[in-house]
Design a protein that fits this description.
It is a single chain. The strands form three sheets. Strands 9-10-11-12-14-13 form a six-stranded mixed beta sheet, sandwiched between helices. It folds into two domains: 2-170, Rossmann fold, CATH 3.40.50; 177-462, no CATH class. Helix 1 packs across helix 4, helix 2 (34-40) crosses helix 3 and helix 8 packs across helix 10 (212-236). The protein is globular and about 75 Å long. It has 17 helices and 14 strands. The chain is α/β, with parallel strands linked by helices.
Length: 464
């Protein structure tokens, strides 16, 4: 009975085995930016691990990679196994290795060829890291591609047993460019936008000056329209399935039910054994409303009516589940920075509207915090180290670098998401720039663009 159940489940999960099933890959045509990165690593033996928030498209990405293997690499269909553990696939009696063994014994066509095994939401499989290690070490023809919604859980487990055997990738919420492409925005806007977006990793700062005319022309033609699209993106455009949904109530319900509640009420309790779900929910709502603010944890613990030890534990769970990020004050002393107030940023600005109607009044009141949160999420994706700088009450929003020892390559960034920056003074960031001998500091604006001797002001929507 057990074997029969496993075999039926494997067949049900692997519809791609049937060549006549032409509809299997339909609806998965749009490729996220991460797709090409994953494809480049398919030839390596190491396990590919994809982590990300719920509903960011991990399962779709896995299916796209699977389709690529069949259509472009001509891999035999039955040499690809797909299993998803987000459903009740496992029990105490049926384990991951039972499915793998059943596949090898009953379905595998050519054991001499490379075998690809896709394991979706693997964090729910008990001792998965030990099982993968055993198969990885004993069969050099196996290529595992796994996914999970809990980053720290995956990373901690993988580093224990799979050191040197795994490459981790993060599937973030949609970028603004991906949002524009998925919503089929003005084609002229998209084509010109692609030519001027700026990425700190791949773009040269000097190119901003060289592209000055292109950027100014774009802002003159599409600036107002892009701001409207960008602010809609901040409030409801982070998740692929609902980017084209105009009903704001449907959007809120989707994010609340499919992302927030699934993570808070299901994932965290199941993985970490939490019973007091109401405490988790109340605490996370505090961080949603305080995104971008510096908080004293003792005060937060008091408001949530929990002790500080429990608060720190819950914070770890929020970070593990990719819901929340914490940054510290920039200082040479790591210990000292961790004792000071911290700033908290929610992983998606869309969370802010879980309980709030998206109207012009609310958007105007909090758009600065959401813009800063978006800026942080962009920067943390591009740099190894992200902090803020506060000295005697004066603050710089972000200090970013890939190497703390290399002072010359530190970047200082202010977020000033407002209509008019004509009379803004940036004396503090200018003085810190001179002190650290940094050539240029950055200001992320709403729409203003300028390149000066010591600063670059750039619309936030142009940062990739």
């Amino acid at each position: 009975m057990k074997k029969e159940l496993i075999l039926k489940e494997i067949i049900r999960k692997n519809l791609h085995w049937d060549e006549k099933n032409f509809d299997f890959f339909e609806g998965n045509q749009y490729k996220r930016q991460l797709f090409n990165e994953i494809i480049a690593y398919l030839s390596y033996r190491q396990i590919i691990s994809i982590v990300g928030l719920r509903r960011t498209g991990k399962t779709v990405l896995l299916n796209q990679v699977l389709e690529y293997l069949i259509r472009h690499e001509k891999v035999e269909r039955k040499n690809i196994l797909f299993l998803s553990f987000d459903e009740a696939l496992l029990s105490k009696a049926i384990r991951l290795e039972n499915y793998l063994d059943a596949y090898f014994e009953n379905f595998l066509v050519n054991k001499k060829e490379r075998i690809y095994i896709f394991l979706d939401e693997i964090q729910y499989a008990d001792k998965w890291q030990h099982i993968l290690k055993r198969y990885y070490d004993t069969n050099h023809n196996l290529k595992f591609i796994i996914s999970g919604s809990s980053s720290l859980f995956l990373r901690k487990k993988s580093t224990e047993s799979l050191a040197g055997r795994i490459y981790e990738f993060k599937l973030n919420t949609l970028s603004f460019l991906e949002y524009l492409e998925l919503t089929a925005a003005d084609k002229g806007l998209i084509e010109k936008y692609k030519k001027i977006i700026f990425n700190f990793k791949t773009g040269e700062v000097d190119a901003l000056g060289e592209n000055k005319i292109k950027i100014e022309n774009y802002l003159a033609e599409y600036g107002e329209k892009t701001v409207i699209l960008f602010e809609k993106f901040l409030s409801q455009g982070h998740f692929p399935e609902i980017v084209s949904e105009d009903n704001e109530e449907v959007v809120r319900k989707y994010i609340k039910e499919s992302v927030y509640k699934k993570t808070i009420e299901f994932d965290i309790p199941k993985i970490f054994g939490i019973e007091k779900v109401d405490e988790l929910k109340f605490l996370f709502e505090i961080f949603i409303n305080e995104t971008g603010n510096a908080l004293e944890l003792q005060n937060v613990a008091g408001e949530a009516e929990i002790d500080k030890k429990t608060l720190n534990k819950y914070l770890e769970y929020f970070q593990s589940s990719l819901l929340l990020n914490i940054i510290y004050n920039y200082t040479k002393s790591f210990r000292k920075s961790h004792r000071q107030n911290k700033k908290f940023y929610i992983a998606s600005t869309n969370f802010y509207f879980l309980e709030k109607k998206i109207d012009s009044i609310i958007r105007a009141q909090i758009i600065g915090h959401l813009a800063e949160t978006h800026a942080f999420n962009l920067l943390s994706k591009n740099f190894e180290y992200t902090a803020f700088l506060n000295e005697r009450g004066k603050e710089i929003d972000f200090v970013v670098t890939d190497n703390l020892l290399d002072q010359k390559n530190i970047k200082l960034i202010e977020v000033k998401y407002r209509e008019n920056l004509s009379h803004e003074k940036f004396s503090f960031i200018e003085s810190i720039s001179k002190k650290k001998k940094i050539e240029k500091y950055f200001v992320f604006s709403k729409k203003k663009f300028s390149v000066n001797d010591n600063s670059i002001i750039l619309p936030l929507f142009l940062i990739d």
